[in-house]
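Tip: read the tokens left to right.
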């Protein structure tokens, strides 16, 4: 049954009271009252994301659940749903059934979020992990020199270095940038070493401050040189496996950290967004007006100067520690389909600071396994 049929039903029922004008902004939502002819029941009444909800509809003593003309609606958007219906996000769902002129009672189901399941370790006896450093680019749509670093990073991603790093873009040059966020501002305030833009850093404390200039090939080579300086060819200190799922107002991330070296570890999860449109000052190629890997939110900030992550404690070589992390999705403007999770594992370097020892990128609604060498 289409929405227009509900409008017609509502208008017919209320014709003696008001005129039904589809253009009238005061027209009520199509919420037909129960007629008492149909009884809707659901199983279960409390469920979980990804678990089906089954409907049964009775008309008197007759089960009409499979009748072709029977339709079941969810009231949030007044959209028809299948039977069974499988929720993809947590929250309360209210349903009712319609068959001809008959309207059922309403039934509400509470759907709870489920912690995502980390994939099984494909090589439990190994602790030799590929190492990925972290590149943080401080940028902005009003920064005229930033497109050159953008192009250098594009060249880097198309080279054989693409397996040696992950990147996050801190859009902090101008606050009207569509990729700007308070989390990005926090990252820049702690990690950025100069007042100028653009600037790129590799990891937190091993600063490789790569500035501007129009020599794209030279900037790309500078990235390579600094990656070579920090990349551990013999393997990262720890490996990362994870899974992420969306809830009504956050992302749940289940992270397994497997140590190759006994150390005191921490983990942070950064929410990144791709495909953000924003006209880039100084752009010399069209793709530079589409921005990826923008920092939207971060976890693991310990104080105003420390974003090293939440404590995992000392992990012995070969051992695994799991951490469930919740990352709030603060803004309705963030496109959920374009979000992903950057996982950053840090370890105590012996001087009271925590260095980035490995990173992983996890899709929301998906998972990533240990990246063995």
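Filled-in amino acids:
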């Amino acid at each position: 049954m289409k929405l227009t049929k509900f409008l017609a039903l509502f208008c017919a029922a209320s014709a003696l009271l008001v005129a039904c004008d589809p253009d009238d902004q005061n027209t009520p939502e199509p919420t037909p009252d129960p007629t008492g002819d149909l009884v809707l029941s659901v199983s279960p009444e409390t469920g979980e994301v990804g678990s089906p909800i089954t409907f049964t509809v009775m008309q008197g003593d007759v089960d009409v659940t499979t009748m072709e003309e029977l339709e079941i609606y969810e009231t949030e958007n007044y959209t028809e749903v299948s039977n069974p219906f499988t929720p993809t996000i947590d929250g309360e769902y209210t349903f009712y059934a319609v068959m001809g002129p008959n309207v059922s009672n309403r039934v509400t189901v509470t759907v709870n979020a489920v912690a995502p399941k980390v994939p099984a370790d494909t090589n439990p006896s190994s602790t030799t992990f590929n190492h990925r450093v972290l590149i943080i680019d401080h940028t902005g749509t009003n920064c005229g020199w930033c497109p050159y670093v953008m192009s250098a990073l594009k060249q880097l991603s198309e080279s054989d270095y693409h397996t040696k790093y992950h990147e996050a873009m801190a859009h902090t040059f101008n606050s009207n940038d569509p990729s700007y966020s308070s989390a990005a501002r926090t990252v820049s305030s702690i990690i950025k070493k100069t007042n100028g833009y653009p600037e790129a850093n590799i990891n937190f404390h091993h600063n490789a401050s790569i500035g501007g200039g129009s020599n794209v090939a030279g900037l790309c080579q500078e990235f390579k040189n600094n990656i070579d300086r920090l990349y551990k060819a013999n393997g990262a200190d720890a490996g990362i496996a994870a899974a992420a799922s969306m809830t009504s107002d956050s992302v749940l991330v289940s992270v397994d950290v497997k140590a190759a070296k006994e150390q005191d570890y921490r983990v942070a999860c950064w929410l990144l967004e791709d495909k953000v449109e924003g006209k880039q000052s100084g752009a010399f190629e069209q793709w530079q007006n589409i921005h990826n890997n923008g920092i939207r939110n971060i976890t693991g900030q310990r104080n105003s100067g420390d974003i090293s992550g939440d404590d995992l404690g000392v992990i012995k070589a070969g051992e695994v520690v799991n951490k469930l992390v919740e990352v709030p999705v603060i803004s309705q403007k963030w496109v959920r389909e374009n979000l992903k999770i950057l996982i950053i594992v840090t370890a105590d370097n012996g001087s009271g600071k925590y260095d980035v020892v490995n990173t992983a990128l996890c899709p929301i609604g998906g998972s990533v396994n240990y990246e063995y060498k």
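Residues 1-28 have pLDDT under 50 and may be disordered. The CA atoms of residues 154 and 352 lie 35 Å apart.
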